[in-house]
């Protein structure tokens, strides 16, 4: 074996030329390779980026106001129908896929409404609530009885009465915020014939818990597909303080009555006299001030600081008086 040291295959000049052609990233890798290893933690948890879904009903204050208004209308209507105090509370507002809303093993009645410019929305009512409601319409006491998990033909027809009453309550609840006209399309018990939205479409659901008597209680769910609400979501995002308040007629009458009893000062102005300060300082009893107005010219009657009427000055029953001949400035409601 030869003891001569092994010679490189490439000449030094060739090696230098190759090193000059190394890309910057390869140079960086070579530099990092010379560094000591970086200590790693013993336990590393996986990190995943979560995409934020569409905003739920809690982000829209005026939507919550509408649902509270509907709760009040429902409670009042139920109390009148059953002639007793009914327990009815708003049990929550959530967002869920349409498929989840219509999937249930409980017996339920589905009311489909169409709203011009918005599309279809859905109301889901437990069947036992509808049966008890119909019983009260027919003169019953609205108590529990057998066969409450399905509707008879008569109950199906009378369920339309409940749907129409609910239509009016929905319109009243929306009226102060954004008036919407609801039209009843169908009353169904089979979810396969609803066709309100696609199965994955996100919906706002408001649940009302209703207790009609000791043995009859259930839920009423108001469901709006997000595409239904899309045109007015920005409007619903406003705070509740920005909601247009409805006029309180009784309060307005009381305020008007109080204002009518308030004292007011009237002042008759016969005319004005322009004068220099030096002439004013020389005024004394017996001097006459020229008022450039004829006897037949009307003068101004002031109410507080506002010129309100043109009047003719004169006498009546031996006293000075003023006859109103024209209105210079109209006030508020007379």
Q: Tell how many strands the DSSP assignment holds.
A: 10
Rg over C-alpha atoms, rounded to the nearest angstrom: 42 Å
Helix content: 25-40%
State the helix count.
Answer: 10
CATH class of the largest domain: Alpha Beta
Stretches with pLDDT under 50, minimum 5 residues: none
β content, as a range? 15-25%
What's the architecture of the largest domain in CATH terms?
A: 3-Layer(aba) Sandwich
**What is the CATH topology classification name of the largest domain?**
Chemotaxis protein chec
Number of domains: 2
Distance between the first and last residues' Cα: 129 Å
CATH superfamily of the largest domain: CheC-like
Helix-strand category: alpha+beta
Q: How are strands sequenced across the largest beta sheet?
A: 1-5-6-3-2-4
Describe this structure in words.
By secondary structure, the chain is α+β, with helices and mostly antiparallel strands. It folds into two domains: 57-242, 3-Layer(aba) Sandwich (Chemotaxis protein chec); 265-327, SpoA-like (Surface presentation of antigens (SPOA)). It is 31% helix and 25% strand. The protein has a six-stranded antiparallel β-sheet with strand order 1-5-6-3-2-4. Strands 7-8-9-10 form a four-stranded antiparallel β-sheet, with no helix packed on it. Helix 3 (61-82) packs across helix 6 (153-174) and helix 5 packs across helix 6.
